[in-house]
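Suppose a colleague, Dr. K., hands you the sequence of a protein chain of 305 amino acids and asks what its three-dimensional shape might be. Before reaching for any lab equipment, you can write down a predicted structure in token form. Begin with the sequence itself:
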Amino acid sequence: MKKILTAILIFVSPGILTAQQSEGDKLRSEGDLEGAIRAYRKAYSESPADQKNTYSLASTIALLYQMPDSAFHYLDLALKTDSSLWVLADTDMISLKEDTRWKGIEQQQLRKYQKANGPLKDPEYARELLSMIGDDQALDYYIDMAKAHFAKNGIVPHWYYPLGKMKSQIGAGNFERLQQLLQEKGWPNYSKVGELAADALLLAINHHESDEVRELFIDQIKSACEAGEGSCMEYAKIQDRILVNKGELQIYGMQFRYGKDRKLEPFPVENPEYVDQRRTAIGLEPLKVYLKRKINFDWTIEQKK
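The predicted structure, expressed as tokens, is then:
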């Protein structure tokens, strides 16, 4: 139980509400899925060409696990002009993946993506990795609701614990499959499977319970980052997590904890006046900008060169 409770302090933070949110977004972030669906439907009736709203409607319906026909209907509409692969990795769509119609969505988006961006060296490898992103984060919406409850009330809700246990089990299963894929197909770099799919491996490694796994792959992850063939953002997160879990100072400022006021703050950073120099070296934005956007935290340490 202690390990699961620790996870709620270190994993991805709950979303920060902004003035730009629609009514549907606001209700969804508060946990009112039925209310969010009503708001998205109303917005759709007023502006059916708003692709973002239509996609949000489809994904929120999918989160309810109750109306797959309706979810697929709006998803088809939302994807008409979308040539990205994001939907294949979207954790909100997990309830649709067992439906026979999902295979058609996968094939359609892979075809459109390659037409727009050029052929992938291994599109089937990309498909498997993208699916694993969705599996890896399948419970994140509900876990984020638990985090919001903790931030507001100072108490971890009892229903978080089975979710945390299930998430750990999913992560372990994903990692076993990833090991098989690595042996069969090699390291998934950007030119082989695309950026989003390549990042699936890093997410699975970052979410694994064992730091031994992260340490096993950290050199390959760093090399891919430096060669422009892997995510430097995910490399920084994994490197900092290894350090934080050892009780050491992080070097990029990517890991957070809840402070005494139950607000998120970064774990202590080594030589914090030089953190932007380290971040710039691997293509990351200034920490002040990142923390404000990510957790609404004001980083005030003046930077040196």
